[in-house]
Amino acid sequence: MTTTHAPKILFVDDIPALCEEMVTTLRGEQLDADSNLSPLAAIPEIVQGKYDLVITGLVIAELGGFEIIRRIRGAGCRTPIIMITGFGTEQSAIEAARLGVADYLTKPIERKELIARVKRVLKQYATPQTEQPGSLVRMISGDPKMNEIFEKVKTIAPTDSRVLILGETGCGKQLLAHAIHQQSQRKQEPYVEVNCAAIPANLLESELFGHEEGSFTGATKRRVGRFETAGQGTIFLDEIGELGFDLQSKLLHVLDNGKFTRVGGNKELRSSARLVSATNRDLMKEVELGRFRADLYYRLNVISIELPPLRRRPGDIGLLAQHFINQFVPKGSQPPTFTPSTVEVLRRYPWPGNVRELQNVAEQLAVLNRGPRIEATDLPSRILQARPVETISPTAQRQVQLGFRKAKDQFEKEYLLTIIQQANGNLAEAARLAEMDRGQFYRLAKRHGLTTNTDS
Ligand SMILES: Nc1ncnc2c1ncn2[C@@H]1O[C@H](COP(=O)(O)OP(=O)(O)OP(=O)(O)O)[C@@H](O)[C@H]1O
């Protein structure tokens, strides 16, 4: 890995003398510059995040400047690009702006002017494009939606209302539940966590409500349950969607009148703990499917908070990655920093394991990395090679969800419809346009219900 702090710049043009001149000029300013005569060879390296800035010409025989930018952006890469041209027209300046170039320069360009513009773009893009980070107890975020959630928690935490936290695995539900407790007036009281998925169903009742000695085989002495331990504090039931029907009814009873008994006992005990619950299931759907009691759902869901998955909060990815790196480096050593292009690559990955997965990657990087910067090439290959979600068209995403047969069917029908319309309803002409045999085209159209009796 590179140990230099200088940002990396690539100049793409097919005139060797120009490349040499540009590289010499930039290096003269202590900038780490390189050139490539072939856009097709340069694009994969740019997309991999190897450079912090790309400077490209407009007219290049192998691939023009605009097409280079389209391909780079099409691959989800947002590395800043400066376009330089000797053939600039108003039209090309507009197109360059439309494609989101960071700067557009027309020749002749003074050396001083070039350096100033390059440095301006580097400075602008080196500043993380995130909101001012917000925080809530041990949580931090630079995402506006998350910061709204933090504000909501600060408002609702001091009340006694029950809270249901929804969100994919690893996106911070547990941390948020704890933050609610910490921000409440109950923070001096116990905070008790129960993961309903981690305890075998037959032991969960005793775990929650306790049991009396001899109440079942193995119950050798009385055990105090988690509701009792929580006292006046907060009880957090994680993975509540995993509760069996039986326990759902018992929980409903506690929520309705605050009373419960230990397994095998008959003394009525009272719970005044505040209940916070969480699930990564679509609990409403579970209700519709008859797997979760509707009455319990409404009692749990007095205030609901939905944590967005990490891929929907791109502003958090760089921020949290750096936050975790800072935590994981050994005491006394300087934490390495992520280059802007590495953050770009991190943002392209969909993070199915959410913040937990990012935390693990950061830990790995903190342990293995020896240099002051973390380059894109230091990242695990699954992240480096991830295709950005946004480059897959919404239609393609929908089709993937349909499964191959249905997607093929849908495509065929839409294709036939379009081509029949283009041929003004004339099937013979449509078959010709589709370069298909007329009989085969007719049979296919019939199968999709696109023919009338007069067509035969
Ligand atoms: N906003 C954040 N700031 C700092 N750390 C975070 C943040 N969100 C999550 N984490 C950390 O990420 C890890 C996963 O978070 P957490 O366990 O709260 O997720 P979860 O949604 O409860 O996961 P699961 O559904 O698998 O139980 C934890 O180590 C947590 O400390």
Automatic annotation (TrEMBL):
Q: Which top-rank group of organisms is this from?
A: Bacteria
Entry annotated with the keyword Transcription regulation? yes
Q: Which UniProt keywords apply?
A: ATP-binding, Nucleotide-binding, Transcription, Transcription regulation
Can you provide one Gene Ontology molecular function annotated for this UniProt record? Answer: ATP binding
For this protein, the record's InterPro entries field holds:
AAA+_ATPase, AAA_lid_NorR, CheY-like_superfamily, Homeodomain-like_sf, P-loop_NTPase, Sig_transdc_resp-reg_receiver, Sigma_54_int, Sigma_54_int_dom_CS
Q: Does the record carry RNA-binding as a key word?
A: no
SUPFAM superfamilies in the record: CheY-like (SSF52172), Homeodomain-like (SSF46689), P-loop containing nucleoside triphosphate hydrolases (SSF52540)
The record places domain Response regulatory at 8-122
> Which GO biological process categories is it annotated with?
phosphorelay signal transduction system; regulation of DNA-templated transcription
User: Any idea where the Sigma-54 factor interaction domain is?
Assistant: 139-367
Q: What is this protein called?
A: Transcriptional regulatory protein ZraR
